[in-house]
Amino acid sequence: MALTPSRLLSITVCLVLSAYAFVCYTTVQLVIFPSMGPELTTPLVLHLSAFSAIALLGIVSYAAAVMIDPGSVPPGWMPDAEENNDMAVQEVKSDGGARFCSKCQAYKPPRCHHCRICKACVLRMDHHCVWIANCVGQHNYHPFFLFVLYFLVGCAYALYLLINQLLQDIDSLEDTASEAQERDRRRLPHQSFEISWDSLYRIFTAILVLPLAIGLGVLFCWHVYLVLHNKTTIEYHEGVRARWLAKKKGQLYKHPYDLGIVRNLITIFGPNATSWFWPTLQSPGGDGLSFRTYLHLSTETDRSVGLDEEVRLETRTDDDDFISLGHKPVIH
Ligand SMILES: [Zn+2]
Ligand SMILES: [Zn+2]
């Protein structure tokens, strides 16, 4: 699998890594250690181990999503004429011809789209992500999903620890102030300043983490939805138009690559469930040139509801091709 480590040096990648490193450092140095005391207690070891593991998995997943090539069309690739049968989903231009990228001067496999920013056709393209300075496609979707998951868990964990510590700060500040007033008013300003400095650092980190956690949470829920339906972001938008066109014709649109939740998970993350949570350099979801569709799973029941009738649904893609997606919807 092709790797481009130089992407790690891009400005947005450095910015993301710096912000995340700052959040991790502040959480460990100013929250976990002070709240647990100087001794190596069991809660300290547990929090430190759990937070470090999540942070490390997040950074490794992020680096993999940045470096791994999302998938390019092999030179000379041609659509397989024999694939154009009952079991294959036919993605064609509106004139019925094979999808061809005029910019790359090459045929496009199913689910492949041209990225204007990368200036290349990307296999099973989801979207171009500025935060990883890379396209999200066939080969780096898994680490991209894990990066969102682990950054979300890391930020939520950090936020929980930060808020807990800030509540303790408020309590100790009130205690210190009342004690100092009773004993010696001259010591109050110095103690108050030291506590406030650390608290300000924690407040600043919490302000940074909160929108980050909300944004990652929304992004994670969105990709959970996409994974469960075996869709890409592009296909979701194409599906909205395809569904509208089907409705106009009195038909029901069905996303052709949706094989059911379990099969969708296996298709995207691989058959071994224990490896779903570890970023790997090897794409678990195949070569990205051909994909199973629900037509492969057709049963007698499927055919009885009208799968034999072919209806073409034209949708506009980001690179101005008209394609036929899900050309055999269930007819009711
Ligand atoms: Zn192209
Ligand atoms: Zn791109």
Automatic annotation (TrEMBL):
It catalyses: L-cysteinyl-[protein] + hexadecanoyl-CoA = S-hexadecanoyl-L-cysteinyl-[protein] + CoA. Pfam families: DHHC. Its EC number is 2.3.1.225. The chain crosses the membrane at residues 45-68, 144-163, 203-228. The keyword Acyltransferase applies. One of its GO terms (molecular function) is protein-cysteine S-palmitoyltransferase activity. Signal peptide: none annotated. GO terms for cellular component: membrane. The DHHC domain is required for palmitoyltransferase activity. The keyword Transferase applies. Belongs to the DHHC palmitoyltransferase family. InterPro entries: Palmitoyltrfase_DHHC, PFA4/ZDH16/20/ERF2-like. It is a multi-pass membrane protein. Keywords: Acyltransferase, Membrane, Transferase, Transmembrane, Transmembrane helix. This is S-acyltransferase. It comes from Klebsormidium nitens. Residues 97-237 form the Palmitoyltransferase DHHC domain. It is found in: Membrane. It is an enzyme of class 2 (transferase).
